[in-house]
Structure formats: structure tokens, C-alpha cells
Amino acid sequence: MKGKNQGVWIGEKDLTNDPSFIEISQQEFASLPEILGNEEAVEQVEGNRRDFLKMLGFGVGAAAMAASCDIPIKRAIPYTVKPDTIVPGVATYYASTYTNGSECESILVKTREGRPIKIEGNDLIGYGGTSARAQASVLSLYDTARYKNPMMNGGDSTWAEIDKKAIEVLASSNSVVLVTPSIFSPSLQKAIDAFTSKYNAKHVQYDTVSHSALLDATEKAFGLRAFPNYHFDKADVIVSFDADFLGNWGDSNKNSVDFISKRKIKTVSGAKMNRLYQVETHMSLTGSNADNRVLVKPSEQGAAIVALYNAVTGSSLPGGALNAKAKKAVSLMADDLKKASGKSLVVCGTNNEAEQMLVLAINNALGNIGNTMDMSDALMTFKGDDKAMMQLMNQMNSGSVDTIVLMDVNPAYDFSAGGKFSAALGKVKNKLAIAYSNNESVDGAMITAPSSHYLESWGDAQPNPSKYMLQQPAINTIFDTRQDAETLLTWAGVDYGGDIMNFVSNVFAENAFQNQSSSSNLKRYWETALHDGFVSVNTTSGASGFSGSASASGITKPVGGDGIELKIFEGALGNGANTNNPWLMEMPDPITRTSWGNYLAIPVEFDGFRKMISMNGLKDGDLVNVTVNGDKITVPVVQQFGQAPGTAALALGYGRTVAGACAQGVGVDMNPFVGMDASGNRSYSVSNIEISKKVGKEKDYSSVQYHHTYGVTDTDKATGKEINADEAALVTFDYGMGVQGYQGALKNRSVMYYSSLEELGESVAELKKRREHAQHLNDAQIYGGHDYKYNNGHHWGMHVDLTSCTGCSACTVACMAENNVPVVGKTEVARHHEMTWLRIDRYYYGELENPNTVYQPMMCQHCDNAPCENVCPVNATNHSSEGLNQMTYNRCVGTRYCANNCPYKVRRFNWLDYTTADIFPGNQPTLNGENTPFGADNLTRMVLNPDVTVRSRGVIEKCSFCVQRIQSGKLTAKLEGRKLRDSDVKTACQTACPTGAITFGDMNNKGGNLDSKLKNPLNFIVLEEVNVRSSVQYQMRVNNRNEKLDA
Amino acid sequence: MVGFTSTSFAQEGNPDEGKTLFRNYCATCHSKDMKKNLTGPALGGVQERWSDWPLEDLYAWIRNSPALIASGHPKANEVYEQYNKVAMTAFPNLTDENIASLLSYIDLVVAGVPGDGGPKDPDGPVVEKKGVSKWIYAGLLGFLAMLALVLARVIGNLNVIAAKKENPDALIERKSILDILTSKGLIGFVLFALIILGGYTTVNNAVSLGRQQGYAPEQPIKFSHATHAGLNKIDCQYCHDGARRSKHSVIPATNTCMNCHRAINYGSEHGTAEITKIYASVGFDPINNKYIENYDDMPESEVEALYKSWMVKANKEFNEKFADADEDDLNDLANDQWKELVDKLTNREKKTVKGPIEWVRIHNLPDHVYFNHAQHVSVGKVECQTCHGAVEEMEVVQQMSPLSMGWCINCHRQTEVNFEEEGYYSAYEDYHKELKAGDRLKVTVEDIGGLECQKCHY
């Protein structure tokens, strides 16, 4: 805890006190509202007194007319025959399974009057919480771009017609190929088997981001082609080579839970943590949560792995040159790993078979196989085979494929092979598509069979052999769509009785019921599975013991020289399939804090004094030309701490050309630059790229990095002293005789506390001192607290454990879904107008070029001495007896004084009609230049939570602690005539968090969940010294850094 | 006749008790005139019908019919078969005395003693009392104005006399009416009064914009709450079943109507015209007493033909007026009734009579207001009538309360919270201490935050 703001910084501009940053941080609203339409014309308009009187007359007249009109007749339309399970006004929950590509999570679907409106985690499976993508998946159900009916040759058609035609085409084809993502649904697999045997078709599976090297390695080593089951909860030391296991790699949701379970600190003495070393090029979500990061160029990964193999096993395989820092780090890592034999884990995310085999061998040498990783209950959600896809492409090129059926895939985009796949697809005679919405691959298909959303479907999933999950529809099909299994079975001519539920339950009987011993009644077992969302079944593993042989012959070889290497990675959005989801598009990337596009991450270097230098002198938002393999692309840059020197990185998933309006042309498509290595696996790095000097400036640089900052300090030019630069209200005074200074001069403010595990005792002692000082300052004020008011009844509060927060952003999306928070689009984000009630502030600390990272979810702190409340001229924001800072939209007149006075900068203003709630279309911005503003159609509006007001233009909004959930939890307790329980009220961010970082509750409930967490000595209150008496406490971020690496 | 000699059952029932029991337990399914078969059979003459069996059997039958059916009792099974195998709900809590009372009440009704008169006021609606007081006020105002004029005249005269006394020679002109009317004082006063009055009306009208107290729109079905809730004493929450568990009280689904109207197919007021609307909505074939399969796919012409023929049949059979009417008249009547039905069940968006009935919503709250029925009905134990008025007396429902924020707040200020019980409210420890010590007499909704913004606005 040293230096500026306890040693944390947001970004380069913060670190160097950039004047532009100081300027925006002084203002709550950095940018004036937008004038829509012709800005110049509007500005030229001059008004005079007569115009004013005319307008006034018209206004009064119009109001009088409006007042004398009849009140419109509103209808109350009941059911004809009301379903037993639905009570209008009461939410019904269904257990189901979220599947999307290789993602699979057990969930609960909240429905109101038959509409799914929110996804919750299913805590029966052992942990609650979901990923951000699962949270957002409910919005894609109401995607306006989805297919609404069957189509033939681009024109509307009917199921009968397209089925007839499809069967005709398939029957007359000599060779049929079915391309799908990894299939881990037993019922879908059965349908596929029926289809392939009927038409003698070939089934090819591939993943949007390839893991085929790991799968090939496990096949050789264990005789089973599957993703190993990693137990991060059993590992004390973890080394990860470029595996983003908290973000995208493996079962990331479960990985996060397991990983964080070893990082919870309850007491100072005897605190224990696991340790994660991340060896990578670009800062991934996992890297940002690592204790030590080791920077290597993509081409050095192989050498690093070989070095670790040699250090662990004592062999001397030739690996090639490695940078000096990494070389030293590897030997220290090896020491750490060997000490924790059997309780350590090495994972690898590079798509190189030899490297994967080496890593398996390292784990074998450390005795981890069977302990921290095993193949007995392996993950079956990745089955993709790059070689099979390349073979298919060659066959298509040679014209030996008559008919291709593309089911839920988009290979022309995400298996681009430098654009060659698309060309090959053009040579296939018949293209049949089973797809949810139009994309680069299925565009112009002969037959398009629209798929149902997973929330409209019956289905199952077996992500691990022991876990059998069920999917049940939470809504009838909205459009004339059909689920994939039905289409395949129909085309295969299988009579499944017309009811896909029976088909799924029959498969369940064969696969799940036969392999269990807990129940002898199939019907009851099926109902239990539907109710719980999943069942556990017995398995017999097909895997043998480790029998791989490590060799360095196939690894990536260091390129050497000064050429810049480009790392292509999968970010928070995935590879293309989620791009048309505005909630995800606007969710800032946890690390770069950018939204609406991908940005070239370039490294920053410290000049040893006070300046950070980045490649070619580039700054955030500068446009550059990047030459990759001879092709030129133009992208904006973002200066990225912790990016390996001599490298750059760009995310996959953007630059869609055939997609919904929200995704069209946002960012650049990196898939064409994904190469193929010698053993036929896709490789995600390119060497010797060229980056030009600045060629322009990104028009709307939609990074939220420097938005809504607080606790910023600056150096006063006159005195050279450090001053508080936060507020425009900052006043200089000069009383003469040398008495001059600044008002509001608290500088060293409590924004963030962190500690290493070693120094935890000292850090906590210092924290205690600082908190005592803050409380002393508060006691000396004339504004005492009102704590006595909140002892009676409830007093709501929150606790956030910063060590448990991985930055995954599930809470941000959950908050948007629960509270009808609008999305505003790229232009508006660039103007600081994003509306998120819960933002995740990302701070760096520690080493300048390769810092550690901490995430701080920041929402309204519900201060009991709130500065926003006493500046509101109309009392639209005030305090409740339960300690809630209430915001009343219908009272708000939009003065924005409250936002200006909020020290945490969590209040948001509706500058425009983001919710399309009013009748003037001119007030509605578009997200990405689409024809209809987002949410202006009745389909998208079905996702709105009916218990939360949709805010109109001109009002302030902010986190309400999910007051609608508080009220409904209280009502449940009252109806049952009992005390309120912790489980009655949980906020949306709390239920979404997989790692349990957020705890909400009643501070007056002594002995409750929250109360016990509030006793933690690591807790602090943000800006405690300004006497606002916030109701949110944060628990210090603790890392387990190996300091020896720094020495 | 064995039963009647049995001592334990030969009890004299209390018809008053019987009446209460009948209303509480039986009236939902059995006709209150004891003569008509509804969901359950007409109860008149039930003892005669069971006279071949011991009275114990009848008592057992009333108390727990499914058990008697299960025991294989021939009479029980006969009735069971006759009524489509729908067994009567068991009332195991009924004592023998209760049943005797019930039977005596039934006998009394059958014998012609007036049954349940309901709350209908024999004197008709009370003359509007407010109107009377208005006239008194107007008269009083007129009288006062007259008095003011007379006094003004008197003062004028006195002024003239006084002036004459002082200066008898002066020519004193009396002020003409015109002078008075154009005087500065009067014009000033009138303007002032107009501004005050105008301002008062403007503000009041602006405040009540969008409020619709007294709103009583015509509904697609002439549903009478006075008949259902008043005369027949059906509990409000039988149909509005959301009130106890949801934010919405819920307009009942058509299948809720069918619970009774499957049997009651001819109304006392409107005959078949209104009840057929229910059948057309849900797809029930009253002629064959069954639901129509795949009603959604039934051609409109067939739907029309079916219900018209039902209207002809029902009018002829159930209405004495039409007992001898000829075919053409009946057809004309059915045509008119069908036209009305189509008119009421369809609109610009809804082209068919099939499907939900689109009622006109009377009680509307703005979108930014959250109101929860369960909180008020189940937790607060507020009577429906407190806010909705005596709906059981309304032929056409109207909005009784202003549903304004001031009205809500006022009630929250006055209403006492039931703090006695252990349970949810035990969280308010200070209040419990104060109540115990006698420092506090009661806890109102206001005291637990009932006036705070985010209790209703979020």
C-alpha cells in the first residue's frame, strides 16, 4: 500500500496524470447531450419572444386538447383456459440447461405470464451463478434477426415443402456431410446417428475456437479423445500456459468456482491460498487473476513448456531460446510445483499437440493425474476435429461433396482458413441449413430449417458422463421454428411420434435411468430430473492410464528477431455466435474495458521515470494499419499493461458481415488470420506483422476505462503539491498572507486495498489504522450519522469480496436483465453515456509493465449520509427507513445535481430515449445504425421485467439494491408468517456471481450471512473518510505472489 | 322408513344454521331454490329420494360422498353415474346436527318460505343525498345574495339620507346599477374571484387528469356482480383467485365461469344471450353438454350454426314466454342475440368469437406504480370492499375509489399493522419493546415505512 491511491491505477493516462484525463474526471458528465439529426441546423435556429409565445400557446392548447380527450380504453384479457402452473403476476421457474456451442450450464428460467425474462443459476448442482453469456442468452430468444419461418432458395416456405425437398435432395445425393458443433446431447446424438445411417452421411464436428490439439493428445495418452476433468479446487499450485480457464477454456464456470474456493480468506492468521502462474502473451481474464504472470511471445510458449518439462523431470529436451525473465520464472515455478506434487496442476491452452502432450507428461511426472485431473469423468463438450474439417474442405474443393447440412455452425466465418472455406462451400451442389439466424455460411442456402431457441426446446446434455442435464421449454415456439433433433429425425424419416418430449424422455430412459440405482420408477425419476434440471448417473470410463511420450519435435519454435508477433484470442464475447446480443456487445471487456468492437492491444513500456511509452507512440483510440501475412487491416489500438513486449493482440468474434443489425460490421474479423500448424491444428498467432504509425482516430472510442472515475489526484501547477482532482467544485482559496490552498483537499482516499498473502498481517494492521483515522475524521464532522434510525426493522447492506471477484461480468449483464437497464450503442458509450447500474472498475497495481489486476464491482453504495439526497430540489431521491437510497423516477425532473454530488459516480442519466418509451422517434438513438431502434419492437420488449419501471428520457437512475426483490422477499416471509431469511432476498448480481463474491442481506439480522461477512478484518469501505456512511463493504484483494520472481 | 325411527338421527334441525351452512358449503354447486339441477342435483326432496335407504346413509352421503361411492353403495353409485362421475366435495367436519339443520332448511325452502333474498334493497336506490344538500346550499347562497342586495340598497338609502341631512340643497344622484357594475371595486373583486376560482379548478382538474373515479364502462358480457356476489354469495376470491397470492387480483379465465355455467345455462335476467358468450369463447357445446375438440380449427359458420341452434333450443325450453313461440320468432331472436354476441366478443384486432373475452379494465394504475393484492388481502387482511366498494350490489361495476396517491397514503397513515403475532414483524424489535412498555399504542403502516417512495415506485 504505497504511493498514489494505495498504488493502484486505471490506465496509462491515470498513471501519468494526463491533462485530458484530469479534465474529464472533474466532470460527472463528460459530454453534452447529442443533438439528433442535423446538428448544424439545430444550432443555427434562433428563437425570439414571438416564437416563444407561439410555442407556449401551442403547448397550452395541446395540453388542453389532450386533457379533454377520453381516457383510452384499456383491456384486461384473461386466459380462456388458465394453466394450473401460471398465476398472473407471480413468476414461475423452470429448471433447464443453457447450451451454446461448447458452453453448458444448469440454469433456472424465470418466466412471467409465460415469457422467459431472466436466467438464474441452479444451485442444486453444487454452485449457483452463471456466466455472462448465459445471462444474456434470454435476450437472444427475442432476437429480431432470427429466422421466423422455413425458407427455400431465399423465399418463404412451409415445413411440408422444405421437408419434402430436403428428403428428395438428400436421397439423391452420393455424399452427404453434416457439420455441427460438438455434440454432447444424447438425444441429438441419436437423431444424428439416425440421419447419418439413413443417408450414409459423414458427421463432422468442430469448435468455434479449436481445442483439437489437446483432444488429440489425450487420445494418444489415455485412449480417450476428451477434455480432461480438471479439479482446480484440489490444486495448490497451478501453472497455466495460455489457458484462459476462468474465461473460455474448458468448463470455465466450474473452473472459476473451484479456483476461487481455494482463495477465500476468513481470518488473518493461518490464511491459505492457492497460487496461479500464468504464462501468456496477452492479458487474459485468467491472467488478470493470476498471482504471477510470465510474459512470453506466442512463439516462445513451446520453449517455456519444454523448459518446465525439463525442470520438473530432469530431462533435457531441446526447446529453443526463451527470454531471460521467463527462463528464471520457469525454474522457480518448477520448484513450487514439485513441492506440491499431486496437489498441483499444469494446464495449457495452446493448440499444439506436442505442447499439450508435454504438459500431460508434466502432470504425470508430478503425480497429478488421478488427483487434480482425471479422464474418468472427462468433459465431453469439446469434440472438434480440425483435421476432419480440413479434409472436408479439400473434398468440397474437389467437388466430391454433393450435399452439406450446416447445423448451428458458421464455418465460413469461424473456420475461415484464410477465406478458403467460404470458397469451398460455394462448390457444394446443395447447401441445407439448420440455423437460428442468418450468417456468413448459411446465407443463400437452398433450404433453411429455422431452429428453435434452447428456451423453446426439449433436450438434454451430458457435459460429463456423470452429469445428465435436461432442457425443457419455458415458452412455446414464438415463430414457426422447429428444434434441431426434430428436423434431423424428420429428414431421416424416423417416426418419433410427433412429440419430441417423448423422444427425449425415451433417450433419457435408455441412457440415464439404466445407469443409476437411486430410483426404480422411471416416471418419478424423469420428473425429479426435470424438477432438478439434472441427475447424476453412474459411468464407466473408457480411459486408460497415461501412456504418452513427450517429445519436443512438434512444438512452436521461437521466431526470434524484432518482428512483432500477433496473438489472436477469444474474448468475453466468444467467437461470433453472441455478437448480435446487445447486452454482450455493450458489456465492457473486463480487461481493456472496451465495448462495441475489438481493439489491438499493444504493450506499454516504462521509461524509468514517470512516462509510459507504447509502440510507435500510439495512444488509446488511435487507428493503425496492421499488415498480417500481407493483408492490411485498420484497427484502433488500446494500450495494454501486461502485454508481452514485441507483441500485439486482437480478439476473435467481431467483424461479422452477415448477421443481425447489432453485429453488422462492428470491429474486424480475425478468423481469416488463424493459421494451421504442421500437425493440422489451428494456430492462433501470427509472426512478423507490421503496425503502422497513427493513421487516424477512432470516431467513437467506446472504452469505459476513464469513465466515472473517482479518487483521482493531480499535481497543482502553482505549488507543486498533490491535490484532489476529482470534482469541479474544487475551489482555490487565497486569504492573503500566504494562506492559500484547496477546499476538499482529501487526497489519499480509500479506493482500493490489496495485499499479498505474506504481508497480510501488516496490511490488515495498516488498514485498521486508516479506518480508525477515517472514523475519527467522520466523528469530528458536524454531520453526525443517523445510525440510530436503522436499528429497527431491516437495514440492507452488501459485502463484496474482491479476492473472489474474477471480473467475469456476469453480474453486470444480470443487472441489466433484472432492472431493464437500457443499452445505448457505440456512439453513446463513447460519450460516457453508458447506463450500467453496476460497473466493474478494473485497477492495476504492482509492477508497472506487468502489473497485477483487481476488479471492483461498483454500484450505488446506499449511503446512510448520502450526498445525492440533500441536493435534489424535488426530493426525488431520498432515504428509506431500511437504509435504501431511493430513486423515484416519476418525481425526477432531471437536474442531475445528485449525479454531480455522488462521490462514487454511480448515477446514470437518460440523455436520450434509450428505452424507446416516449412517442418522439427523434429522441431514440440506434445502436449500430439499424432501421428500428433497439427495443422499439414488441418482440424485444418481451424481455422486460414487468416489476421494474421502464425509465423515460430525462430521469436519473441507479442501482436500487434490487428493491423489487427485497419487496417480494418480504412479502413471501409475511405470507408465510415467519421471519425473513437470507435466502428470501438475493440481488440479481449476487445470484449471478458464480464465485460467491457478492453477499447481500439485512445488517440487522445478527448471525446472518451478511453479518458474519461484515466481521471480516479485511473489510474496508470505499471513501470511508468522506463520511457518507455507505452500506457496502469490500474485502481487500489478496494475492499469493511469489516475490522470488521479481527479485 | 327405518331411518326416521332411528333416535340418533331424528333430530330437529335449526333452519337458520342450515341457511348459513348451505351458503358456505352447498350454494356453489346446488341451486338455491332447491328445484333445479346445477352442477349438483336439486336438493328439494332429497330425503324422499333417499327414503329407501337408512338415514345414516344420507348423512354419510352428505358428509363424505366419495367414501360412500367407494364402499359400493348402490344409490350413491347411481347418483354418481347420473352426474358424469363428478363426486361432491367431502365435508368431514359437518356434525349430524349440522346436517339435520341443512335438511330442515332445504325443507323450508321447498315448502315455499322465502329463500335467500340477498342484499337487494326493496326500496330501490337511495336518492342521491349529496344532491339534496347542494340545493340547500344553492338556496342559502341565493338568500344571502338577496340579503346582500337588500342591505346594499339600505346602505345606499341611508347614505342618501345622511347626505341630504348634511346638505339638503345638493342634488344627490343615486348610483345607477351601471355605475355599481362598472365600479373599480366590483370589477377588481370579480377579476380576483375569477382568478382564484379558475386557478382552483385548473389545479384540481390537472391533478385528477387520468383519474377515473366512477368509471363504469360497458363490458362485453353483462356480468352482474349483484347476482353473483350479492344474490348467490359467491366469494370474491373464488373467481379473483390471484388476490390472495399475486399482485394481480386476476380477471377469471373463462374456464372458471364454466365451473358453474356448465350447468347454469339460462340466466334469470338475460336468458341465454350472455351465457352463450362464455360457451362461444371457450368452445363448449351446451346441446351435447361437452367441450368441442379442436375448437380453434372449427369453421366460423359451424360455430354460428351451433350457438344459434342452442339459442333457439334454450329460449324455447327455459323461457315460458317463448314456450309457444313459432320457429321464425325464435330464429329472429337467435339472430339478434348472435349478432350482439359477435359484436361484443370481436373487435378490430380480434376477428373471431373464439378465445379470451376482452373485458374493459376499470381499475388502472400508472405504469410507475407497483401495487400488490396479496400484500393487502392476505397480509393486511383488508376487505375487498374497502377499496372497491360494495361490488356485490353493483349491476355494472364502477371504480369507487379515486386510486390517487393521496388516497393510498391516507390509508397507510391510518391503518394499524397487526404486530401481535410472532413472525415477520419480529424484526422490528424497538416497536415491540415500546408496545410492551406501553410507550406506543399502535404501529401503523406509516411507522414501518409505508409512506416511502420505493414501497410503490421502482
- Spatial strand sequence of the major β-sheet of chain A: 7-6-18-17-16-8-9
| Uncertain regions spanning at least 5 consecutive residues of chain B | 1-10, 114-130
Question: How many helical elements of chain A?
Answer: 28
**Topology pattern of chain B, helix = H, strand = E:** HHHHHHHHHHHHHHEEHHEHHHH
CATH topology of the largest domain in chain A: Alpha-Beta Plaits
Shape of chain B: extended
Number of helices of chain B: 20
Strand content of chain A: 15-25%
Structural class given helices, strands, pairing of chain B?
mainly alpha
CATH architecture of the largest domain in chain A: 2-Layer Sandwich
SSE class of chain A: alpha/beta
- What's the oligomerization state? heterodimer
| Radius of gyration of chain B, taken over Cα atoms and rounded to an integer in Å | 33 Å
Low-pLDDT parts of chain A are 1-5, 34-38
Largest sheet of chain A: 7 strands, mixed
Mean pLDDT of chain B: 84
Give a written overview of the molecule.
The complex is a heterodimer of chains A (1047) and B (458). Chain A has 28 helices and 46 strands. Chain A has 1047 residues and is α/β, with parallel strands linked by helices. In chain A, helix 5 runs parallel beside helix 22. By secondary structure, chain B is mostly helical. Chain B has four domains: 109 residues, Cytochrome c-like domain (Cytochrome Bc1 Complex, Chain D, domain 2, Orthogonal Bundle); 79 residues, no CATH class; 94 residues, no CATH class; 54 residues, no CATH class. In chain B, 49% of the residues lie in helices and 1% in strands. Chain B contains 20 helices and three strands. Chain B has a two-stranded antiparallel ribbon with strand order 1-2. The radius of gyration of chain B is 33 Å and the shape is extended. The interface between A and B is large, with 51 and 57 residues. Strand 2 of chain A pairs antiparallel with strand 3 of chain B.
